[in-house]
């Protein structure tokens, strides 16, 4: 997945004559070509094979093929694309599934080409998927993501309002053909997005709802914390179930994979142990923050034993 920011824009001010402002406005409209819509044609589905390879660096065997898109759409799946004019630059793909006895809509893929990231496209694709799932009668979407990917965590928790209750060790195996999985495997957080909950509605309408300050967070017990030398420091879970705990992650795991694989593996092992221990004790991941730790940005998950405010049910 890709972490978006608010989209491109041109700010018009009153310092320009009216004609100049009209010209700038027309320039804005001419460049605003992104369209979010359903993908139905065979040719557009076929184009997604190459898009996957460009985004994730997969080989042919790991790439979702055209025929799978066709069949899964036919039996209730949803395939939504982001188009720059006629060119597909991103997509989100999901299908109907069963999670712990509940019928859910599972989002399997979200991809945006590198040059189109940081423009809010990932979030817009998820919102379009949300609307599609609601139209089909679902009020929960599940998906997985790598908990060491800070941009994805920010999108999922802060911008969309998901929660996580399960951790999957090497969900896709110990490695794939993608460089994203080099050295650290394919561990995943399993998240749930309760589409009609107050929590999600507020995030969709207002964006992030981070209530705790950095000062407040520093009062909580970290299960994993970044040391000054960049290495993770772990401590066992000793919190009561009425308390909250933290798990920190590096801001850029991709750089660590390239420059210091041993350190990247250490972060995987430390966070894997912390998440699995916390989930076994009944904790839920409810929030994600970005903090300044000794002059370096770190990601920080907030875990609680109680369901977050604004979620009153677990199923359809």
From the spread of the alpha carbons, the general shape counts as globular
Task: Classify the secondary structure makeup into a structural class.
Answer: alpha+beta
Helix content, binned percent? 25-40%
Number of strands: 12
Task: Give the helix tally.
Answer: 9
Main-sheet strand order equals 1-2-3-4-5-7-6
Q: How large is the radius of gyration?
A: 20 Å
Mean pLDDT across all residues, rounded? 85
Kindly list the characteristics that best describe this protein.
28% strand; 7-stranded mixed β-sheet; alpha+beta; disordered N terminus; 5-stranded mixed β-sheet; 316 residues
Describe the secondary structure blueprint for this structure.
Layout: H1 18-31, E1 34-38, H2 42-56, H3 66-74, E2 78-84, E3 87-99, E4 102-112, H4 121-135, E5 140-145, H5 150-160, E6 163-168, E7 188-194, H6 198-206, H7 214-217, E8 221-226, E9 232-234, E10 244-250, H8 253-259, H9 261-280, E11 284-293, E12 296-304
Parallel strand pairs: 4-5, 8-10
Antiparallel strand pairs: 1-2, 2-3, 3-4, 5-7, 6-7, 8-9, 10-12, 11-12
């Amino acid at each position: 997945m890709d972490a978006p920011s608010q989209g491109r824009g041109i700010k018009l001010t009153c310092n320009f004559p009216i004609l100049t402002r009209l010209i700038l406005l027309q320039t804005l409209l001419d460049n605003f070509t992104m369209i979010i819509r359903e993908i139905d044609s065979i040719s557009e589905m076929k184009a997604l094979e190459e898009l996957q390879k460009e985004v994730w660096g997969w080989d042919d065997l790991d790439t979702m093929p055209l025929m799978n898109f066709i069949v899964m759409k036919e039996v209730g799946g949803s395939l939504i694309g982001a188009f720059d004019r006629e060119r597909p630059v991103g997509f989100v793909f999901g299908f109907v599934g069963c999670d712990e006895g509940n019928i859910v809509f599972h989002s399997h893929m979200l991809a945006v080409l590198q040059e189109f990231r940081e423009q809010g496209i990932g979030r817009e694709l998820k919102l379009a998927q949300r609307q599609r799932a609601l139209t089909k009668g679902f009020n929960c979407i599940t998906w997985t993501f790598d908990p060491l990917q800070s941009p994805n965590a920010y999108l999922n928790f802060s911008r969309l309002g998901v929660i996580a209750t399960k951790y999957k060790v090497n969900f896709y195996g110990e490695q794939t053909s993608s460089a994203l999985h080099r050295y650290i495997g394919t561990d995943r957080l399993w998240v749930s997005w309760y589409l009609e909950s107050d929590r999600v509605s507020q995030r969709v309408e207002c964006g992030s709802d981070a209530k705790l300050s950095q000062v407040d967070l520093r009062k909580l017990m970290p299960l994993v914390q970044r040391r000054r030398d960049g290495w993770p420091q772990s401590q066992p879970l000793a919190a009561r179930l009425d308390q909250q705990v933290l798990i920190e992650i590096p801001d850029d795991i991709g750089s660590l994979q390239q420059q210091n694989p041993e350190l990247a593996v250490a972060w995987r092992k430390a966070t894997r142990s912390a998440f699995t221990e916390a989930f076994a004790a009944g904790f839920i991941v409810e929030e994600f923050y970005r903090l300044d730790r000794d002059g370096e940005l770190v990601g920080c998950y907030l875990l609680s034993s109680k369901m977050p405010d604004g979620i009153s049910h677990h199923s359809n």
